Amino acid sequence: MDDAKPLVVSISESNGALSVAFVKTTKGLWADISGTICQADKSLEIRFSAEQIRFGPAASWLLRYALGGGGKFTLTRLADKQMQVQSTGWSGIFVPVPCHSQWAGSRQHFSNQPCTLSSCNTFPQCDF
Question: What tens digit of pLDDT does each residue of 44-74 get?
């Protein structure tokens, strides 16, 4: 994915459910995920089932294969203005950015290209 085109991660909450959208600049939607969020140690986890992920036209077959059955993403604050997002076999470091796309609305946006994360709310502990 080192093609110099930013991947934008948009995070929003609606009716107690978390929504995370991954959009590749100039390529479009990779995936839109609705899941649950919980605290795991010093990170937050977003867990989702196969029914809670919608792949966009920019999603590769590998992404569809890896996450098609559900999974989890871990969000870890690295510094005041950095957050690591990771899943099995993939991770990226993101920074907050203003967003002027169709995915805007009430979402918080992060990009893996160089730019204050708001403080985290309190979330329940993950059940392992």
Answer: 888 899 999 999 998 889 889 989 999 998 9
